[in-house]
Amino acid sequence: MGLYPSDWAQAPAHAHAYRARTSGFVGHVHLIEGFSQPANGSNTDDHIHFYSGVTSFENGHYHRYYGMTGPAILRKDGTHYHEIDGTTYFAYTESPSIHYGGIVYVSGGRKERHRHSYRGVTREVVGNEPLGW
After folding, report:
1. How is 2-47 classified by DSSP, letter by letter?
2. Domain residues of the chain, as ranges?
């Protein structure tokens, strides 16, 4: 077994960069950006990628998100991209005051929580081995 195990019966593993902006809520939006998980696939098959992360920190909070891309979509130049869309996890509209690190459990009355939706496309392919490597 080599240093990087691959299924050579399929197209080489690759990943994509992605970036999207969330919907607005109470005057703020979040930026979502990162790299998808690697997947074997080509420009013309229906492969997908898993992605996850944490939004930008805005208005005193951030959101977690995860999802799977849509299938590969061929571009005119022969490369491909994927569509991403989803909804973030809930976060408090007003962040709880934290005096010490760790998990915060809010007692008593309920605090307002909210989510954001997002939609975008993946960007360049990253992680391919150079041709002839």
Report:
1. -SS---TTSPPEEEEEEEEEBPPBTTB--EEEEEPPPEE--SSS--
2. 13-126
